[in-house]
Specification:
By secondary structure, the protein is mainly alpha-helical. The chain has two domains: 3-64, no CATH class; 76-131, no CATH class. Helix 1 crosses helix 3. A two-stranded antiparallel sheet has the order 1-2. It is rod-shaped. It starts with a helix and ends with a helix. Strand 1 (90-93) and strand 2 form a beta hairpin. The chain is built from five helices and two strands, in the order H-H-H-E-E-H-H.
Length: 135
């Protein structure tokens, strides 16, 4: 580990400790800084920097988290057949009673965008339709 990295790590740990103590103190930032001989601008800069680092770390952790969803396998006798107009189709049953039918030859990038929107909890049916050139 380089000296610069050690120094930065030491500073980060120092400011994390100071900010934790400030939160526990119940003091205003100005009073806490005066009491501990800290520069207010440095305090605010480090508080912002650490919040940004924590948010980036949390975002990276959330992106790498594997998520599982419940899957219900139905007997073949209840799966729609060609007579019902959905030969080779897949059907995803989503929350709130929504169903997504995916026919053969689907556009994978569009499906990925749609699933990402649904996983993020956005009702973007209009946006997805526009992405495929539909009104």
């Amino acid at each position: 580990m380089s000296t610069h990295t050690q120094r930065s790590s030491g500073k980060e740990q120092f400011w994390r400790t100071m900010i934790r103590r400030w939160r526990q103190s119940g003091l205003a930032v100005r009073a806490f800084c005066r009491e501990h001989g800290l520069s207010e601008p440095s305090f605010f800069a480090w508080r912002r920097t650490l919040a940004e680092r924590d948010a980036e770390r949390d975002t990276a952790r959330d992106a790498s988290t594997v998520r599982f969803v419940p899957v219900r396998v139905t007997p073949e006798s209840t799966v729609p057949t060609a007579a019902h107009g959905s030969s080779g189709a897949l059907e995803l049953v989503l929350g709130a009673g929504r169903r997504l039918r995916i026919g053969p030859g689907f556009d994978e990038p569009t499906l990925r965008r749609l699933l990402a929107l649904l996983e993020n909890g956005h009702d973007q049916s209009q946006t997805v339709g526009q992405a495929e050139g539909r009104p």
